[in-house]
Hints:
Blueprint: E1 27-28, H1 44-57, E2 61-65, H2 71-81, E3 88-94, H3 97-106, E4 110-116, H4 119-126, H5 130-146, E5 150-156, H6 163-175, E6 180-185, H7 192-206, E7 211-215, H8 222-231, E8 236-239, H9 253-263, H10 275-286, E9 303-304, H11 307-315, E10 333-334, H12 342-350, H13 358-374, H14 378-392, H15 398-407
Parallel strand pairs: 1-2, 1-8, 2-3, 3-4, 4-5, 5-6, 6-7, 7-8, 9-10
Bound molecules: manganese (II) ion.
Manganese (II) ion binds at residues 33, 186, 214, 216, 245-246.
Amino acid sequence: xxxPRLVEDYHSSTASERHIPEHPIFWDETLRDGEQxxxxxxxxxxxxxIAEVLSDIGIxxxxxxxxxxxxxxxxxxxxxxxxxxxxxxxxxxxxxxxxVDAVIASGATHIAIFVAASNVxxxxxxxxTQDEVLAxxxxxxxxxxAAGLHVAFVTEDTVRAPFDFVERLYREVQEAGADxxxxxxxxxxxxPLTFRWYLQExxxxxxxxxxxxxxHNDFGLATANTLTALECxxxxxxxxxxxxGERAGNASLEEVVLCLESLYGIRTGIKTERLYELSQLVEExxxxxxxxxxxxxxxxxxSHEAGIHTHGILAHTLTYEPLQPQVVGRERxxxxxxHTGKAALVEKLKERGITASEPLLTDLLQRVKTExxxxxxxxxxxxxxxxxxxxxxxxxxxxxxxxMVDSLGIRAVAQ
Length: 415
Ligand code: MN
């Protein structure tokens, strides 16, 4: 008799609809968009520490930052560009010749030239016409190509821009030499189905040689949309460690990689067993705590407390875990608490070679429950209060700001 399969895997049913490239090129944005997370700033040395791990685990492209932002930022990009990393170091530039010069001077081999595309950005932010955006884009793409850089052309807010303009702009910059085109869902409003339509339409109209996407997480869809883009054949998805980035962040590196590896069985070439180490490093350096329930790297992602669940896990991990924690460099945790059941206690006692009688087990279980329920939450409350205090004002406080204004003698002037 043939053994029945323990779980069904329906992903093969959709295999013919997927056009995932054999070797996706993960483009990490942790050091650029990730650094734009409110309150986050990295020193050049901190960027290098993160970059070394990213490069070691197999991420092929790192956006190191925007050198024209500050001298320190330029130093960061230079440091990474000359660190002998296996990953290619990319730096970003607006469609301004001085920005491109700064990238050329940094030693980065890759450049991302970005400009906004939607009417709301053009009219209210850039105060430029579509023709002016096109002219500035062509000029800077040619400038970067002439300097021998690999050029990615990015528009912000691509998916809220008039398609006719997007088509014209991207077609022309590609003709001018742009090597890779990046479509951005800057405010995270795509859904997987709409994004699939958009990318198919984009491909039909623009015929990109090489396509990349930049997805934001405002509605919690960044990973899903990025996965959709990969399913549509997009080669270079943007990702950030721990899903860092502006506002609600970008697509999380670990989530996108594990979706491909664990759900679709694709070998990404990323050393997934080091993802937790990377996540913890970025948490520590950025100061942005990982949500306890964050997929894969959150503290609870491989923890079990409820009796029914621990019982199941002890019998077979497939019952309540979709993947082994070791895959991302973690350990399973059995939590003893209010919801614990006897099976977990039996297993725990085994650690010391103890077997207990049924009445003693019942007694022990009652004590575990009572003890945890009676436990004071004051430490946790204190921690949360501090956490909120720190995160409600991650930058300068109002008091600090106004003290600075006063110390400079800044006063109202008559208009
Ligand atoms: Mn962004």
